[in-house]
Amino acid sequence: MDAKAIIGGRSAANHLKWLADSNGITRRRVSEVLDIAGLSDVAGRKVGTFSLGMNQRLGIAAALLGDPSTVMSTSRLTDLTPRASFGIRNLMKSLALEVGRFSFRAIS
């Protein structure tokens, strides 16, 4: 997923609601994935104001909307700030800890 392939004037929540609606996914899942991705506090903010790291988190939230059994990321984290890179790595590692659900391999 391209982290910048988002309509910048939409809020993070509205972007995910649109994706949920277009894929027959309950809107209740939107708040769940925003929470998982650590974006609940900025759910109403326009994504055009997001940093690259926040856009990466939004992409992860979008990937998790359908509650998939497998998620693979090949994104390099080297373009992110050290703090954002650390946050994304921790998020992916926490998802990987869900037994039998995800695997994570950092690409540097």
Could you explain how this protein is built, in words?
- The protein has 108 residues and is an all-alpha fold.
- It has one domain (12-96).
- Helix content is 44%, strand content 0%.
Quickly give the structural class: mainly alpha
Please, how many domains? 1
Q: Approximately how much helix is present in the residues?
A: 40-55%
Instruction: Kindly report how far apart the N and C termini lie.
Output: 18 Å
Enumerate the spans where pLDDT stays under 50 for 5 or more consecutive residues.
none
What's the helix count? 4
The Rg value, from CA coordinates, equals 13 Å
Major beta sheet, specifics? none
Q: How would you describe the shape?
A: globular
Strand element count: 0
Fraction of residues in β-strands: under 5%
Mean pLDDT comes to: 82
Topology as H/E string? HHHH
Supply database-style keywords.
108 residues, mainly alpha, 0% strand
Topology diagram in text:
Elements: H1 12-22, H2 28-36, H3 52-64, H4 82-96
